[in-house]
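Saturday, quiet lab. Running sequence design on the structure tokens for the scaffold JK sent over.
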């Protein structure tokens, strides 16, 4: 009985600490990764704003080769939507372009599975002396006590973004001619 009481006390203390920590940690999060791509800005923008291209360099395409996707709306314009439904690793959800200019693309992201969540993702494009600095970011909020997971989520998303940006770089630098292998 003493062992049971000690275990219960330890659990109560742990839960109390975790709940307390959730009030110390912020509910909002931001993840940003960047890369320098030596290709024309319009090529890079085209890859980011057209869902047909996104499938080719997305870091999540490998999670489920059988993933079902649907693209609706006018390609590359506000309102264009990418819907996916995959296995347990890929989950399901949608992305909708809410802003599109040569300097920035804004996207509403809505995860349905493995759990429902919403966030804003974005790409920014900053021309440099050599190439374009591309930033891929995500901003959102997680309710307490789910905000405890934000540290791990930021690490995972950040790793995925780095992988995706490396693929985007390879794709753009190996095909630097506008329209050669890009959506119209």
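Result came back. Writing it out in full:
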């Amino acid at each position: 009985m003493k062992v049971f009481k000690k275990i219960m006390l330890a659990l109560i203390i742990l839960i109390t600490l975790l709940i307390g920590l959730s009030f110390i940690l912020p509910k909002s999060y931001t993840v940003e990764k960047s890369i320098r791509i030596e290709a024309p800005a319009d090529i890079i923008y085209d890859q980011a704003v057209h869902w047909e291209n996104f499938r080719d360099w997305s870091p999540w395409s490998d999670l489920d080769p059988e993933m079902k996707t649907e693209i609706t709306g006018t390609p590359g314009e506000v309102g264009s939507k990418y819907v996916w439904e995959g296995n347990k690793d890929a989950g399901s959800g949608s992305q909708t372009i809410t802003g599109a200019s040569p300097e920035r693309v804004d996207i509403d992201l809505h995860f349905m599975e493995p759990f429902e969540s919403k966030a804003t993702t974005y790409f920014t494009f900053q021309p440099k002396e050599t190439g374009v600095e591309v930033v891929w970011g995500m901003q959102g909020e997680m309710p307490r006590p789910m905000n405890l997971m934000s540290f791990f989520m930021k690490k995972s998303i950040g790793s995925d973004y780095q992988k995706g940006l490396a693929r985007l770089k390879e794709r753009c630098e190996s095909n630097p001619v506008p329209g050669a292998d890009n959506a119209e």
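Notes for JK: Residues 150-174 form the longest helix (25 residues). The chain is about 35% helix and 35% strand. Ask whether to fix the surface positions before the next round.
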